[in-house]
Amino acid sequence: MDYDLLVIGSGPAGEKGAAQVAWFGKRVAMVEKRAPHLGGACTNTGTLPSKTLRETALAITGMASRGLEEAMLSLPRPYSADMLMHRERLVVDSERARIWRNLDKHQVELISGTAVFLDEHTIQLLESGRKITAEFFLIATGSRPHRPEWIPFAEKEIYDSDEILDIETIPESMIVLGSGVIATEYACIFAALGTHVTLMDGRDRLLPFLDAELGDRFAAELERLGLWLRLGDDPVACAIDPVTRACKVTTKSGSSEGAAAVLAAAGRSGNATSLGLEKLGIAPDKRGNLTVNEHFQTSLPHIYAAGDVVGFPGLASTSMEQGRVAMCHAFSLGYKTRVNPLFPYGIYTIPEMSYVGATEEELKKAGRAYLVGRASMADNARGEILGAGSGFLKLLFAPEDKKLLGVHVMGPSATELIHIGQMVLLQGGTIDPFIDAVFNYPTLSELYKYAAYDGLGAMARLKAAASAVA
Questions:
Q1: CATH number of the domain to which 180 belongs
Q2: Is 410 left (phi over 0), alpha (psi -120 to 50) or beta?
Q3: Which of these, 148, 173, 208, 258, lies nearest to 361 by C-alpha position?
Q4: Distance between CA atoms of 292 and 298, rounded to whole angstroms?
Q5: What is the pLDDT at residue 281?
Q6: Distances (CA, A) of 108 to 4, 7, 41, 403
Q7: Does 294 reside within a domain?
Q8: pLDDT tens per residue, range 127-176
Q9: Domain CATH for 423
């Protein structure tokens, strides 16, 4: 074989999987059809660009320290997207260079080209015809925006979640189709830039996987800050006026909304349909995703797949771990044997949200008794400094032994704060460490202490009620 491992794709799963194996001295090559644009959707069109754009919006509007309703843009209208994307391009270039350095440090050979399988151990590059053999393969080809047929993406006013980064002018109004993470993140970004945003979806709730209280508070915050939510009525048609170039989206019930632009963020599809896997007996599902077992093996044990191409959860953080776990299994390294199931979700909306562990709805469905402790950023000194009055932290714990069951946060630095609770959950701990710990002052981390105190109050009330009944 030419290599011990051939990785197809340079996103988070591919990079970390390749580096993991190469670190142990194996011969590793990586095929990337967009080289030198390394990093996949995470670096080039998804995670980093959208989060950088969010920070830019916060910075130029002053929203990092004030509410959205007070944000004032000093930029002349129409706003130049080129200036807004300046920082995004710097970050993307820097991350591409970091990935290249990491591959070079681990002596992973980078090969530019589009790979197609010829047989179980051979791929061919479409551009050059070169054939490459390997003992093991890691498919980490990522995903692309799902494009419903009824949306006319050929029109310049219609964008998917990759194309939106090439927008030339920030529009006065925009319809965002979807109610998931990508849709809500971009809805918040454009609202922060002064765009009138209408978010439309057939589902009744935004981000329905969230704890209901967190989701309801977030939806209320969006409406308070000027976004229009049109949920529970499926969008079914999208048209462009040929004269005015105005966009109109019509729903199943017959109602319609108009805007200057439309962003369709209706999920993503895996990039596995053009690899020639069918001839090997590996068939992607209807969304282009590959089915794998707990070791991330496809139906051919020496061909692994990880990252967005295997579907849920589709997070950069879990994709990295999947790549490492898959390759440790392939080469019997014994270093990592599983992806820890207790991973946090980070949602970079405005305000930011994150959670780890169980939601109230999951605990109720399981018949598990629980209590709640809450702390508000309005009562926290750092929260007051940041103007984060709507933010809060919520702890779910067992009444019998105070064992922590879940943590939910909304507000500034939520995706950083969540890791404090995650560490306690990973240790199977209780809310007592939050009571015992000394936190810097003023910090948002203090919210854990006061949420735990609130939880103790809930315990005391529960005991008092039980005594009264007795």
A1: 3.50.50.60
A2: beta
A3: 208
A4: 5
A5: 95
A6: 11, 10, 20, 45
A7: yes
A8: 999 999 999 999 999 999 999 999 999 999 999 999 998 888 889 999 99
A9: 3.30.390.30
Which of 108, 101, 83, 100 has its CA nearest to residue 23? 108
Tokens 């329905």 locate to: 208
C-alpha distances (whole Å) from 328 to each of 16, 105, 142, 310 are 11, 19, 20, 18
The pLDDT score that the predictor gives to residue 45 is 84
d(CA 365, CA 393) in angstroms, rounded, equals 22
DSSP state of 298: -
Span 408-431, pLDDT tens digits: 999 999 999 999 999 999 999 999
- What pLDDT does 102 receive? 96
pLDDT digits (tens, 9 = 90+) for 269-287: 999 999 999 999 999 999 9
Q: Give yes or no: residues 134 and 84 share one domain.
A: yes
Give the pLDDT of residue 165. 87
pLDDT at 42: 87
What residue ranges of the chain have pLDDT lower than 70? Answer: 60-80, 83
Judge if 138 and 91 occupy the same domain.
Answer: yes
* Residue 187 maps to a domain: yes
82 and 128 part of one domain: yes
One domain, residues 136 and 177:
no
253: domain range?
158-266
The rounded mean pLDDT for the chain is: 92
The candidate with the shortest Cα–Cα distance to 48, out of 113, 94, 10, 9, is 94
Of 244, 266, 288, the last residue of a domain is 266
Q: Is residue 310 part of a domain?
A: yes
Measured CA distances, 235 to 158, 186, 223, 249, 452 (Å): 15, 18, 20, 7, 43
Are 418 and 448 in the same domain?
A: yes
Residue of 5, 4, 13 lying closest to 310 (CA atoms): 13
pTM (2 d.p.): 0.90
For CA atoms 223, 227, 231, 233, the dihedral sign is positive
Cβ atoms of 259 and 170 closer than 8 Å? no
Q: Cα separations (Å) of 114 from 123, 127, 319, 339, 398?
A: 9, 7, 21, 29, 52
Domains: count for the chain: 3
**pLDDT of res. 76:** 52
Domain final position from 266, 285, 307: 266
Cα distance between residue 366 and residue 347, in whole Å: 26
